Amino acid sequence: QVQLVESGGGSVQPGGSLRLSCTASGSIFSFNGMGWYRQAPGKERELVAEITSGSSTVYADSVKGRFTISRDNAKNTVLLQMNSLKPEDTAVYYCKAEIRPAPIFRPVDYWGQGTQVTVSS
Predict the structure, then answer these.
(1) Contact 10, 16 (CB under 8 A)
(2) Mind listing the pLDDT tens digit for each residue in 35-44?
């Protein structure tokens, strides 16, 4: 089984920074897109940022200019640097990776368990 493990969440004051990391392990043949999503209480899960295998990036309008997504293929890791954090960034952040577990299988989306980010005074 493929597993995604997130870390780096926590509590921070407005204007502060956090860096989230997500590492994949298990049966992995290849990676495609990787990204971060978040879900606030009472809200639907939404895209934060994605990065393709070619390192092209997509950001939600609400985080453009503040968040930066990157990947380290050698470590099977995707990172999310979050600067200038706002209270509205408070949510559970989930890592997603599109992974082909074996060459005979199609790519499948895998999700981490989530890490809490809280921004408050």
Answers:
(1) no
(2) 999 999 999 9
Beta strands in the chain (DSSP E): 3-7, 10-12, 18-25, 30-39, 46-51, 57-59, 67-72, 77-82, 91-100, 108-111, 115-119
Calculate what percentage of the chain has a pLDDT beyond 70: 100
**How many residues are recorded in the chain?**
121
Query: 118 burial class (0-12, 13-18, 19+ CB within 10 angstroms)?
Result: middle
The residue among 112 and 105 whose pLDDT is bigger is 112
Question: How far is the C-alpha of 58 from the C-alpha of 40, rounded, in Å?
Answer: 20
For strand 57-59 and strand 77-82, is the pairing parallel, antiparallel, or unpaired?
A: unpaired
Helix extents (H) in 44-118: none
CA gap 91, 114 in Å, rounded: 10
- Side chain identity, residue 9: G
